[in-house]
From TrEMBL:
This is Xanthine permease. It comes from the Bacteria. GO terms for molecular function: xanthine transmembrane transporter activity. InterPro entries: NCS2 (IPR006043), UacT-like (IPR017588), Xan_ur_permease (IPR006042). Belongs to the nucleobase:cation symporter-2 (NCS2) (TC 2.A.40) family. It is found in: Cell membrane. The keyword Mitochondrion does not apply. GO terms for cellular component: plasma membrane.
Length: 436
């Protein structure tokens, strides 16, 4: 009886982790798929394979083997860093080029995991926090466009779209104001569900795709066709995955602190290899690159439940959901303005996570001010005015036209410029990084 009770408790806690990351996990395939004008059936596949692949990627990290797996209770989901680069690649080269670049980038991370492990001193809190902040800031315009109905939509900016998206935002804010703990973790999902129901009552939602979707399917390798390999998209995705490594390193250290575990270089290398392998698997089944989800890190601290059994249960739940097309089809019918109201919150919370990572940085040191100032300015500039780099060759234009990549590279190299010691025994100067 006790075992049954413990099993139910473990499942419930795991389901809480699924619910905490579910909205973030489904947003990337929906945003990218709609930007590339995929059909409802194709969108449903993207969402389903995304959920399944998130579960597989999480299992790879839970296992602490000799060569892969960091062995921490972390949840993996599709990284927001890859959103705008994938849309750009898909628009210019086609969707098969997205998956060709993802496969190569995943292999790159696996091969160079040891190299990334040795580079941790060039990814201090000033860089990690700036990168995460830039990710959130650069994605907010996408959320705002979705609030208006999605870029290029016939009713862009209509009063109905505005009222619907603002209502979803208001519901989320009110739930945060009125509740704490578990209910807060459900706020975004409740807001999305409420907005979709309201739109359905007004006749703006069709359930035809849900009724026609099957109850079970197997993942289909190379669903969108054989991948194509273009040098520009490949370089772009390698940079994207390198930025994800920087982002996810901060999450590793946060979870290690929560679980009272010391991380060494070998732990990080195994974690990077697992993420690279997950990216390869995702690319083969036409999913996307992964990172450790910050919202689940917060839930670990909130719940004080730190066992890997709970995360294992969550991973298996994701895999089961990914095998049920009706679940994916139900997600696809969500109106774009509803997503917009939710994504504004989600992307804003990414900004907050970045600012939290920067709180221990000593901003009395002007070099730290310069890192953040230049990186954020370049990131926002490239996001708002991507044509700034239009005169560059097409491959480079895709790379530098993305604000996240431009800002992240700026943060890494400007920080190196100020903190590498050109003389003396120590190569890297950490004294100027943090408050005493």
């Amino acid at each position: 009886m006790a075992n049954g009770t413990n099993g139910l408790r473990t499942f419930s806690l795991g389901l809480q982790h699924v619910l905490a990351m579910y909205a973030g996990a489904i947003l990337v395939p929906l945003i990218v798929g709609r930007a590339l004008e995929l059909s409802a059936e194709q969108l449903a596949y993207l969402v389903a394979i995304d959920l399944l692949s998130c579960g597989v990627a999480t299992l790879l990290q839970l296992w602490r083997g000799k060569h892969i797996g960091i062995g921490l209770p972390v949840m993996l989901g599709v990284s927001f860093v890859a959103v705008t680069p994938m849309i750009s690649i898909g628009t210019n080269y086609g969707i098969t080029a997205i998956y060709g670049s993802i496969l190569v980038a995943g292999l790159f991370v696996v091969i160079f995991a040891r190299f990334f492990g040795k580079l941790q001193k060039v990814f201090p809190p000033i860089v990690r926090g700036t990168v995460v902040t830039i990710i959130g800031l650069s994605l907010i315009p996408t959320g705002i466009k979705n609030m208006a109905g999605g870029e290029g939509s016939e009713n862009f900016g209509s009063l109905f779209n505005l009222l619907l998206s603002v209502s979803v935002l208001a519901v989320i804010i009110l739930l945060f104001r009125m509740f704490t703990g578990f209910m807060r973790s459900l706020a975004v999902l409740i807001g999305i569900a409420g907005g979709t129901i309201a739109a359905a009552v007004m006749g703006k939602v069709s359930f035809g795709e849900v009724m026609e979707a099957s109850w079970f399917h197997f993942p289909q390798p190379l669903y969108f066709g054989m991948p194509t390999f273009e040098i520009g998209p490949i370089i772009t995705m390698i940079i994207v995955c390198s930025v994800i490594v920087v982002e996810t390193t901060g999450a590793y250290y946060a979870v290690a602190r929560i679980t009272d575990r010391e991380l060494n270089e070998d732990d990080l290398v195994r974690g990077y290899r697992s993420e690279g392998l997950a990216v390869i698997i995702g690319g083969f089944f036409n999913a996307f690159p992964y990172s450790t989800f910050a919202q689940n890190v917060g839930l670990l601290e909130l719940s004080k439940v730190k066992t890997r059994n709970v995360i294992f249960s969550a991973a298996m739940t994701l895999i089961v959901l990914g095998l049920i097309p009706k679940v994916a089809a139900l997600v696809v019918i969500i109106p774009t303005p509803v997503l917009g109201g939710a994504t504004v919150v989600m992307f804003g919370m990414v900004v907050v996570a970045g600012l939290q990572m920067l709180r221990d940085v000593d901003f009395n040191e002007q070099s730290n001010q310069m890192v953040v100032a230049c990186s954020v300015s370049l990131a926002l500039g490239a996001t708002v005015v991507p044509e700034l780099f239009s005169s560059l060759p097409e491959g480079l234009a895709i790379i530098f036209g993305d604000g996240i990549i431009t800002g992240s590279l700026a943060a890494i190299f400007i920080n190196l410029l100020f903190n590498i010691r050109w003389k003396g025994e120590h190569v890297y100067n950490e004294e100027k990084q943090s408050k005493a």
